[in-house]
Write a structure and sequence with these properties.
With 641 residues, the chain is α+β, with helices and mostly antiparallel strands. The chain is built from 13 helices and 34 strands.
Length: 641
Amino acid sequence: ELPRRPIPVLLHAYSADANAMVAWPPRRMEFFPIPSPSLSSSLDWSRTLVWHEGRHVAQYQRSTEGIFRALHFLIGEQSEGLAALYYASPGFYEGDAVFAESVYSHEGRGRQAEFLLPYRAYFADSIDFSYDKWQFGSYRHYIPNEYALGYFKQSAGYALNAAKLDYPYEANAKVYDHLSRGLFQYRKVYTKAYGMYMRQMWAAGKAYYEEYWREDSSQLFDQATRYQSLIEEKDYNDYRSSVLLDDGKMILHKATLGKSPRMILFDPSTQTSRTLFYTGRVNSPLRANQEYVYWTENISHPRWQHQSYSVLCAYPLADTSRVNARYKYLTTRSLFFHPSPSPDGRFLALVEADISAKTRLLILRLSDMTVMHSFNMPAYDVLKESVWSDDDKLYFSVLNEEGLRLDVLDLISGAISPCLPPQARTFRHLSYHDGYLYFDADFDATTQIYRYQLKNATLEKLTQARFAASQAKPGQEALYFLDYDAKGNIPASMPWTDLRPALSDGSYQNFLVDDLLAQQPVVMDTTAQEAYEISQPKPYHKLTHLLHFHSWAPLYYDKDQLTSFDLSHYYETVAPGLSLFTQNDLGTAYGQLGYSYHDGYHALHARFTYSGWYPIVSLQMDYNDESSYRSIARNDTLFRH
């Protein structure tokens, strides 16, 4: 559904945090367009924004229908926000948007094997929690967020009632239609749309997915060596990345629900580990040469909320024997991702992004951090990650509207040639060893480790983990990787002699969304789009757009005191009167005009805040407000004895 009237789109072009949101009031879309190479998707980031956030716009537009139409005239755009709270929980909206991005494209999170992986592992091990815990989360057990929960319930609801619906992915339209006609008919409305209400949908979805994921008793899973000493029995274990050192030890990046992320040193031979140091928001896998471990971290600007950087970090391996060792930042205000050191330790390949959402491949000389080579990607090509081979070549993955592909750069001639064609599946965590490229991919509905023989151009599947295997680290005698189960990602290894390589053509089994796609008339990725006339850009003048009145109310209330639950002087928070609210499109200027009446006082109020400068300027005026006066009786005194 197209927007019924133009909606402002705000681009935060100076943020390393790829994200987006749709918000009311005032109505707006905010995009963080720099595509993070760490996102695990083969869907172009700009298309992800369009499908997902566009669905949220359509959801909000339904909030002006039926009983909410009159409310919109009464309080302005505040009505859409109230209607969103009335209609459903965040999981309802996010699950619907995830399903939309999966149905209207050849990718989307609903098609990724890892999206519902925690549910799959819990159910397979007969681990269950209360419905409230699945809904609201836990501080001990890892509970998937509202995106996964909403998609889990709604996709199962679609599948179980597909025969009753012409287009099951539009069942939510019926929810909006019926809820806007009468208040608080949730059970009746959801039952009419899905055949069950939301709490029943969880139980039905659990039964459906358990059958969908039921393991074949004849299937032989790998018997990998899992390092049990790294498992904290009472907590979820999230080992996000690893580096295999020359002496057989490993540096692991670990995060649990109750502790800050940290780097630990682990010795597989003795099953002992110790913490090296704590980290910030690491956004790339660990890579190492003979002297340093490299990674990148997100660093927020100290003042600007929507400005952040991705900086290059390094930790000297010589410090692994020290207590309370520290790592260092090699860059400051950069947008670097996915460092990859050369085999000889002299150079470092990096992905660099810029504010126009373009990426390029940089090769730095580590001795003085000088840029030796720079290769710009074509428009709409997003460089993901790279890895060096031992024959002066650099392999890197690239994402565009056709999918995810693999290219190779000849460092001697500077020529770039294709290696693997674009495809709609996700592969990542590239590594090189002895003529093979290793990566993990979800080609067969589970994430497993593959290797690509460069000489013969053959693809082999190396692992058959029960749930998922990722981040291959080839060693001399064994393959090291992360093995997933209900406790999280755990470092594991398998001797080369125990692996069962099998040729693969990269095809994958159908997911649930593909089964439902047979009822979908078109897939938008393959549909010729209608041409729209785009107006010429004009300068945006901050002064003329400083005020934008979007909402009002037939009473006076101080929203700051309401949101802080400060009702000590209730008549200053809510009183008979009028209110008028303003906020500019940039979100840097907002304020309120109001009139209130209390106990014989007619008062005027004005508040305005401007945050577009480095110092934040806030102004407040109250005229004839009772709180500004105090009646003094005859016997009152200014002094206390």
